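[audit] Reproducing an earlier prediction to check determinism. Same input, same settings, fresh worker. If the tokens differ from the archived copy the diff job will pick it up downstream; this log only records the rerun itself.
[audit] input (493 residues):
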Amino acid sequence: MRWKRFHGCAISFWILCSPFMVVPAEAADPGSILLRNVQLIAHEGEPVDVTVSLLIKDGKLDFVTQDEIPTDEAETALDAEGGALLGALNLGEPPTFLILDADPREDFDVLLDTRTHARFAIREGIIIKNALPPVTDAGAPPAKRGWLAYTPPPLALPASYQDTSKWNRWETKYVSGIFAAAIVLDRMRWISQDGASEEQVGDLTPFTGGVIRGFRLGAVGTLNFAKPWVYTLFGATHAFDKGFDVETTDDLTLFDYRLDIPLPRGMTVSIGKQKEPISLERIMSMIHLSMQERTSVSDALLASRNVGIVVSGTGFRQRMTWSGGVFNDWFDVGQSFSGSSSQFVGRATWLPLLTEDESHLLHVGAGIRTTNARETLRFRTSPEFNEAPDFVDTESLVANHAITYSLEASWRRGPYWAMGEYVRADVTAPSFGDPDFTGYHLSAAWAITEELRPYHKQGGYFRALPVAKTVQQNGPGAWELTTRWSDLDLTDA
């Protein structure tokens, strides 16, 4: 993974005072210095320690990241060898901290003799002790690969997913993973409805109130080969994503069962029930979106999930992504392969603009989906609320073929994000006049608390807005103001 800047945040952890401070033999101006394999000790209420890299430039803390920073980014690169860091890290300010050779929680004596146990010390941006070895990349083990798939996990994984002491996390020689579950609640109120709307879609009063939207549970983890395979298994009591291929609402349904296998040259093959590789909004997880629901365009014209095989990869130093697959859900719905529709789906994205610190980017993409329509087609959706009747519905269409195109563009600069998509479905159905259905949406978001929405290069999508300072840290949390315009036309023919 490429390392990324942490914007607008302060990282806090144990701050301990010792009466025995390091006495510098000779203070030094660090210039630019890289520290790798630094252990940040979790303070009370935090789930797990993390290992990070630090970059200090001109006496100020420039980067803190869990990714690997290249050594050519600094004049000096040092290996902390997992040493525990005590102090305060505030981006853009001169750092003051110690790196100890032992964990003070396990050996309190290190705090009584910091002169002996401090491997590195910096005060107000000036190095006062350095006993760390230089970084040597030669012969270093390859970095572990993270999430392989072109789509994000179906649920947000907790921050403690790497902590094997947790009851829901397991780690063995051959298999590792984490169990996660969520109950999803909705409550909404329709404020008003005019006569024309009531005549068209009926009275909306019964749709006011609260509901249990669904209960979701499952596991993600790895099969620990030399190059680990990633497995995903998730189910729900209600349909997780709306879409014209989703009919089940009450039974326990497996909406994700997939195995992601690494291939040479950074490629991945994904086998099982999964999202089809088309449309930025459809690929992004619901929890990653800036709005509570997907647009009516995505819900009506694009499938939710399907059973198939997808091959994906990147190019041009991860400025381009590509993915393509073949699908047929005969196995999932319990019917013959010949009687079930087959689909071919593909998507490609490109970053024509990407600044060095990745704070400013422009994303463009296109997708295509074809189906032989051996089953009837139906396009319908509610008005972007979970508790609402369908406002538009073609009813069932007997068709010979259908092809769907999607175009997408997204611009992000710091806390500002704009996104738009256009989707068109051309249906070959002579008895219905060969209709063409179209839709688009335009969205804009502003992170008021100045967080930067991360971009996942391997999948060509945006992640959830991070929280720079949580309320547990006496911070404001993350606040985002967002708006959207969408249009869907299913009236052709």
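[audit] rerun output stored. Observation attached for the diff report: The helical segments are 109-112, 114-117, 195-201, 280-283, 296-301, 330-333.
[audit] end
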